[in-house]
Amino acid sequence: MVVGDVTTGTDVLIIGAGPAGYVAAIRAGQLDLDVTLVEKEAYGGTCLNHGCIPSKALITATDVAHDARNAEEMGIHADPAIDLAGMVDWKDGVVDQLTSGVEKLCKANQVNLLEGTATFTDEHTARVSHSGEGQGSETLEFEHAVIATGSRPIEIPNFEFGDEPVLNSRQALALDSVPDSLVVVGAGYIGMELASVFAKLGTDVTVIEMLDSILPGYDDDLKRPVKQRANDLGIEFEFGYTASEWHERADGEGITVAADPIEETAADGGSAEAVEGETGESLELDAEKVLVAVGREPVSDTLDLESAGVETNDRGFIETDSRARTNVDHVFAVGDVAGEPMLAHKGSAEGQVAAEVIAGEPAAIDYQAMPAVVFTDPEIATVGMTESEAEENGFETVVGQFPFRASGRALTTGESDGFVKVVAEESDGYVLGASIVGPEASELIAELGLAIELGATLEDVASTVHAHPTLSESVMEAAENALGHAIHTLNR
Amino acid sequence: MVVGDVTTGTDVLIIGAGPAGYVAAIRAGQLDLDVTLVEKEAYGGTCLNHGCIPSKALITATDVAHDARNAEEMGIHADPAIDLAGMVDWKDGVVDQLTSGVEKLCKANQVNLLEGTATFTDEHTARVSHSGEGQGSETLEFEHAVIATGSRPIEIPNFEFGDEPVLNSRQALALDSVPDSLVVVGAGYIGMELASVFAKLGTDVTVIEMLDSILPGYDDDLKRPVKQRANDLGIEFEFGYTASEWHERADGEGITVAADPIEETAADGGSAEAVEGETGESLELDAEKVLVAVGREPVSDTLDLESAGVETNDRGFIETDSRARTNVDHVFAVGDVAGEPMLAHKGSAEGQVAAEVIAGEPAAIDYQAMPAVVFTDPEIATVGMTESEAEENGFETVVGQFPFRASGRALTTGESDGFVKVVAEESDGYVLGASIVGPEASELIAELGLAIELGATLEDVASTVHAHPTLSESVMEAAENALGHAIHTLNR
Amino acid sequence: DAEETATPQDRVFAPPRVRRMAREEGIDLLSLEGSGPGGRITAADVQAAASGGPVGGGTQRQESTETAAESAATTGDSSETGAAAVETEGRTEPGSGAE
Ligand SMILES: Cc1cc2nc3c(=O)[nH]c(=O)nc-3n(C[C@H](O)[C@H](O)[C@H](O)COP(=O)(O)OP(=O)(O)OC[C@H]3O[C@@H](n4cnc5c(N)ncnc54)[C@H](O)[C@@H]3O)c2cc1C
Ligand SMILES: Cc1cc2nc3c(=O)[nH]c(=O)nc-3n(C[C@H](O)[C@H](O)[C@H](O)COP(=O)(O)OP(=O)(O)OC[C@H]3O[C@@H](n4cnc5c(N)ncnc54)[C@H](O)[C@@H]3O)c2cc1C
């Protein structure tokens, strides 16, 4: 361990060991660069420690219980008991396995790992301060730097994450007892994923959302099955409201969350729930806890970026070119800090590009299609353009659709809500985009991502033999439907 | 309904409404041909009524119970009770929904449906006899015929499917109470799938197999996780034995199945179980029922094929060319009756080709890759060539592999046995084949099937962004591994 | 970049749409040199072979019966009413027929 101020040199300094930074580090190591990866908290970043992995672990585990509890139709009678502390232990075990794996992979690829907080001191040096007792700081000289400091949850006025009943997603994923009731502020994907988890754990969940529907940005037809399922789970929604403050209840039995109606929404009657006889009135919701999930913001303000001359835009994101370069030629930015979409695989892909560009390879961010998945019940997955995006981009489109209720495989799993939709260019049939809501949407989207990347046409997808009985046949059928000759659904 | 002998004409006569025949019929209807589909028993054939669909329904349902029962590690404590009669009712409901859907789709595509048994009377006519009381028969004149009569389970000497404790797969899928104990003869995919179902229902299962391992034809590394899981489920194996006869036990408490050692196996010590101190000795296994699943044979002997001049090979299969044509130009054969692989999607694909060829389209069976799935626990899925097949075909190959235990998504589902393996041509990196054993193998194989059909390279697959956290990332990582730069596993 | 260790002669690397085009044109793909990545045979290669020379604008591509169906599907699906139509058709799909 390095104590005091020492200066060491490195070819590539990578700041932040989330999926963007550690992937950049491993790839740079593979390319024989001398790499130092600095992480202030935990290898794997938000994704492995407090995001993708823990959330998906709890989603899957609560689904196992939920599916068994609701399988009477299938002749299965079960009344599973959930021990959340045990579930969280298991989840923590999964996280440990993956984060220690990341550490090992870094070492095996000759990445120097350094624990500490990095700040820039000038264009070619950074200071790394170690937080442990007796640990000082050190100065690192670098040829290239890769900023991969990620993002953090946005706080809203009067809801501080330090205060006990107020949770961010990270704290919610670490609870070891099930709250009786929970208010979720924000119906984006994180809010909706966690709302389902808690509802399946038996919590009474109410979601407050400023806009008039869940999952802003997704097409209505994709949201419909998710909203329906959420209703079935007993999740309540208050659209058109914004959380204003919370206070302990006088009876000491929890908190009250207050929410004000959004002017516009109330005015134009956009949200049925918001106007129903109480226009302009505030809501008071009693609950045990409140989870604030209103979005994430880049971690770009704690790095002394100015010392390196690196600029951010007005939202705090570091803008980059197709080589993942910032305005400073030898400094790169990847992952959430480099902008939307704030998704792990987007960060990993950028991390690989940054490493390859530094190694002198002709890499570039030139994906035709970036997938996105929402792990709600059912899942939503999209890749490429939606129909309206394609049209805005000047394409004449043809659309094919296949409902899972016509899929033999879906019926045999008892999960047949949703559909596969494929958008293609009309004249030559090139696949432009796809969206799926339903069972295994997250996995099924992969084939369509490959189709888009390879410039495949509807005919290519339709004439590839898909195994029976699988959900992936629905992808083929959607393509056939667009061509006018689906077998298991009517065309036209 | 037609009574007595009437002659009607049709452009296309299709015999058998399984996935080969009904798909041919729907496609022919879409192409505006005048089609008559004759079925003697049930729309949807073996697959929907007694094969793919009912087996997958029971596999999924028993998995729901099994997963809940074994989720203590995840903090879930459940003791599900299974009511097999209820489960079978549910499964029958799924089957009904699909078969009535097939019937409706046929009608919507202007297919004439005829219930009865068809036999050829000459090259251009067939007789259809109706089985109902008072129903006679009729003669159909056709321009083209498509034979899609499928296959049936093979009987072995002394085990007749009519005898009560002897079951074929169809009868096993229709049981409405759980047998205490079951001997399964044959460790092919049908035997193994059903062995798992019954083991998960609580039956003591013993599998007798002539050869020295499960799932003949599959590579050892693919079989290993399946064999392991079967052992964990308490399934016992007797390799190197062949079932010779069965008899009721004297105490009336069930039956005894006798099995003889296979000479060769015993002689060369191929099977540890078979030789262990009892070489050459017969086995006696007590059980409640015995399921015989030793393979399937084409239904080509009940059609008076000679009258139409259509030939079969020595195994009874009708040989066809790449247009699905038999030796008689206007007669086509599709599905199980036209040869291996006897899989539903292979039959459907051939059915489409036959319909299109009859309509004058330049269709052909020119798939580069035919997927195959075994729905064991875990699933096995393959497409294209194995490494050794590729080498036999003269390719220099490179192989990439990714173990699910390194997949974040797999760990969050608690299912991380198995791997993805990709075989590619070395110099240009064309993907030639893939095999997967593990969670959702059946769905993951689709992307690789498309890759092969499109002539995609390893690089194409590796540089397609895959959503995180998904199992499909493992496909990308296997491709990266073949290229020497996987991120989440070490490269050679 | 075609090496000696070239791929076995009877294997064609071309997507299904190109294979069908070749069949329509009566062209044996094995006789073509691919111009796509790694030597993959492209639609343009088939068109070039079909017209006995270099490719033109690519508009001559023969569409089979699918063209009509495609445009029908487009008009149906690109509007709100198209979506409604999909719903209605659903009634004849497998899976939706159970009482
Ligand atoms: C609940 C939740 C669920 C999610 N689910 C998904 C999902 O299913 N799929 C998906 O694609 N995405 C998901 N995300 C988003 C995903 O987590 C992020 O997109 C991803 O983590 C971004 O990766 P990154 O490497 O850019 O940043 P991060 O993962 O945030 O990592 C940044 C790292 O940098 C470190 N760091 C910051 N500043 C410094 C410094 N000055 N010095 C040293 N170290 C520093 C931090 O400690 C952190 O470890 C989810 C997020 C949340 C919160
Ligand atoms: C337990 C089991 C599980 C299986 N699982 C899978 C799986 O997961 N995936 C997969 O791909 N395959 C699976 N199969 C195989 C699959 O069922 C067959 O490959 C498929 O059914 C073949 O389709 P087909 O149309 O050729 O024949 P069939 O489905 O056998 O249909 C033939 C039809 O023809 C009718 N018929 C026969 N003779 C006449 C006549 N003379 N006149 C009128 N009608 C006639 C029959 O009544 C029958 O309905 C499974 C099979 C079994 C038994």
Would you kindly provide a written description of the structure presented here, covering whatever features stand out?
The complex is a heterotrimer, with two copies of chain A (492 residues) and one copy of chain C (99 residues). By secondary structure, chain A is α/β, with parallel strands linked by helices. Chain A has helices at 21-30, 45-50, 52-69, 84-108, 169-172, 189-201, 220-232, 263-268, 272-275, 305-308, 344-358, 387-392, 408-413, 441-453, 458-462, 473-483, and strands at 7-15, 35-39, 76-77, 81-82, 111-115, 117-122, 125-129, 137-147, 151-153, 166-167, 181-185, 204-209, 236-239, 241-248, 255-261, 283-287, 289-292, 296-298, 331-333, 372-374, 379-384, 397-403, 419-425, 431-438. Chain A folds into three domains: 6-153 and 297-358, FAD/NAD(P)-binding domain (3-Layer(bba) Sandwich); 166-294, FAD/NAD(P)-binding domain, CATH 3.50.50; 378-483, Enolase-like, domain 1 (2-Layer Sandwich). In chain A, 32% of the residues lie in helices and 26% in strands. In chain A, helix 3 (52-69) packs antiparallel against helix 4. The longest helix of chain A is centred in the N-terminal third of the chain and has 25 residues, at 84-108. Chain A starts with 6 loop residues before the first strand and ends in a 9-residue tail after the last helix. Chain C has 99 residues and is an all-alpha fold. Chain C has four helices and no strands. In chain C, helix 1 (16-25) runs parallel beside helix 2 (43-50). The radius of gyration of chain C is 20 Å and the shape is globular. Classes of the chains: A alpha/beta (492), C mainly alpha (99). At the A-B interface, helix 1, helix 3, strand 3, strand 4 and helix 4 of A face helix 1, helix 3, strand 3, strand 4 and helix 4 of B. Strand 3 of chain A pairs antiparallel with strand 4 of chain B. One flavin-adenine dinucleotide binds at residues 15-21, 38-42, 45-47, 50-52, 55, 117-118, 148-151, 169, 190, 299, 302-303, 335-337, 342-345, 347, 375 of chain A.
